[in-house]
C-alpha cells in the first residue's frame, strides 16, 4: 500500500514502520495514526512477520499529537468524533512491537511509544508529557501507562510540570528497556525484533498477552492465566521441538505450530 506519512519495510521476518512527517517533527495527525493502524493491520495479517519495529527520525520519534489539528476543535467535536479512541488499537497489536526512539517522544509520541511492548532509546531521546503546558492533559494513556511504568512520583513530576526527561533518566525510571548510541538504534531494535521473530510465534504471543495481563488483573488471576497458557503451549509441536533440540544440543527449527 502507498502511504503518505509513514514508510513501511519488511526485512526477513521483521516489519519496520517509520513515521515520516519531518516538517512537523513527526507530529501525529489523523493521517499518521490511520496509516500506522493500516500498516500494523497488514503486519498482523502477514504470517511471515514475527515482530515489528516502530521508529521516527533522528530528531523526533514524534513530538506529540498534531496541535494545529486539535487547536480549533471544541468539546462537542472531540466527544462526538470520539477523538483518538481508535488510536488505542496500536496497543492491541498482537505481535511484539518495539519502539525505537531517537529525539523527541512527547505527548502522544510518548504515549504511542508506551503502547509498544518495550522501548529502545537512543542516548538523544527525550520523553515527556507536555500537554499541561497547552492547557490540557495526556489523552492517549499518559496518565495511566506512564504511572504504571515509572511510578506515581515521577509520573506526577513529568505530567504536572510538563518537563522532559532524557534517555538516562528514562532508563533509570524503568520507562526504557535499553539505551544505545544514536548510530546503533535501528540496528539494535531490528536485531531484537529478528531474535524474537525467530522464536515460536504461539509462545511469543502468549508471553506478550501474559505480561500485559499483569496490568489488568490481580496477582492470583494473573498467575492462573499464565499457568493456563503455559500448560497450553504443551499442545504445540514447537514445545516438543524446542525441548528436543535442547536435549540434542542443536538449534530448534520452530514452525509456529
Ligand atoms: C504540530 C508541531 C508539533 C506538534 C512540533 N511541531 N511539534 N506541529 N503539533 N505537536 C512543528 C512546529 O510547529 C514547527 O513547525 C516544526 O514542527 C518544528 O518545530 P520547532 O518547534 O520549530 O522545533 P524546536 O524548536 O526544535 O522545538 C522542538 C519541540 C517543540 C520542543 C519538540 O516543537 C514542541 O514543544 N512541540 C510541541 C510538543 C508538545 O506539546 N507535544 C504535546 C502535544 S499534545 P513550523 O511550521 O513552525 O516550522 C498531545 C496530546 C496527546 O500530544 C493526547 C491526545 C491525542
Automatic annotation (TrEMBL):
Main enzyme class: lyase
Pfam annotation, one family: ECH_1
EC annotation from Swiss-Prot or TrEMBL: 4.2.1.17
Catalytic reactions on record: a 4-saturated-(3S)-3-hydroxyacyl-CoA = a (3E)-enoyl-CoA + H2O; a (3S)-3-hydroxyacyl-CoA = a (2E)-enoyl-CoA + H2O
InterPro entries linked to this entry: ClpP/crotonase-like_dom_sf (IPR029045), Enoyl-CoA_hyd/isom_CS (IPR018376), Enoyl-CoA_hydra/iso (IPR001753), Enoyl-CoA_hydra_C (IPR014748)
Keyword Lipid metabolism: yes
Gene3D superfamilies documented for this protein: 2-enoyl-CoA Hydratase, Chain A, domain 1 (3.90.226.10), Lyase 2-enoyl-coa Hydratase, Chain A, domain 2 (1.10.12.10)
Keywords: Fatty acid metabolism, Lipid metabolism, Lyase
Keyword Disulfide bond attached: no
A single BP term in Gene Ontology: fatty acid beta-oxidation
GO molecular function: enoyl-CoA hydratase activity
Role description: Could possibly oxidize fatty acids using specific components.
Family (UniProt): Belongs to the enoyl-CoA hydratase/isomerase family.
Cross-referenced NCBIfam families: PRK05862.1 (NF004517)
Protein name: enoyl-CoA hydratase
Organism per entry: Ferirhizobium litorale
Amino acid at each position: 500500500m502507498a502511504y503518505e506519512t509513514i514508510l513501511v519495510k519488511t526485512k526477513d521476518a521483521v516489519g519496520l514502520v517509520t513515521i515520516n512527517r519531518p516538517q512537523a517533527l513527526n507530529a501525529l495527525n489523523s493521517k499518521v495514526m490511520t496509516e500506522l493502524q493500516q500498516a500494523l493491520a497488514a503486519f498482523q495479517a502477514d504470517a511471515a512477520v514475527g515482530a515489528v519495529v516502530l521508529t521516527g527520525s533522528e530528531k523526533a520519534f514524534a513530538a506529540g499529537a498534531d496541535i494545529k489539528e486539535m487547536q480549533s476543535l471544541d468539546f462537542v467535536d472531540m466527544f462526538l468524533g470520539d477523538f483518538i479512541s481508535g488510536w488505542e488499537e496500536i496497543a492491541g497489536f498482537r505481535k511484539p512491537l518495539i519502539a525505537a526512539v531517537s529525539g523527541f517522544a512527547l505527548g502522544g509520541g510518548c504515549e504511542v511509544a508506551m503502547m509498544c511492548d518495550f522501548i529502545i532509546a537512543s542516548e538523544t531521546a527525550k520523553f515527556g508529557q507536555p500537554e499541561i503546558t497547552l492547557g490540557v492533559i495526556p489523552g492517549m494513556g499518559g496518565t495511566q501507562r506512564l504511572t504504571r511504568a515509572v511510578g506515581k512520583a515521577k509520573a506526577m513530576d513529568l505530567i504536572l510540570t510538563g518537563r522532559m526527561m532524557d534517555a538516562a533518566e528514562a532508563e533509570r525510571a524503568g520507562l526504557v528497556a535499553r539505551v544505545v548510541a544514536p548510530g546503533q538504534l535501528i540496528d539494535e531494535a531490528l536485531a531484537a525484533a529478528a531474535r524474537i521473530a525467530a522464536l515460536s510465534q504461539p509462545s511469543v504471543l502468549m508471553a506478550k498477552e501474559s505480561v500485559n495481563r499483569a496490568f489488568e488483573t490481580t496477582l492470583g488471576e494473573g498467575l492462573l492465566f499464565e499457568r493456563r497458557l503455559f500448560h497450553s503451549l504443551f499442545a504445540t509441536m514447537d514445545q516438543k521441538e524446542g525441548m528436543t533440540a535442547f536435549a540434542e544440543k542443536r538449534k530448534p527449527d520452530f514452525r509456529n505450530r
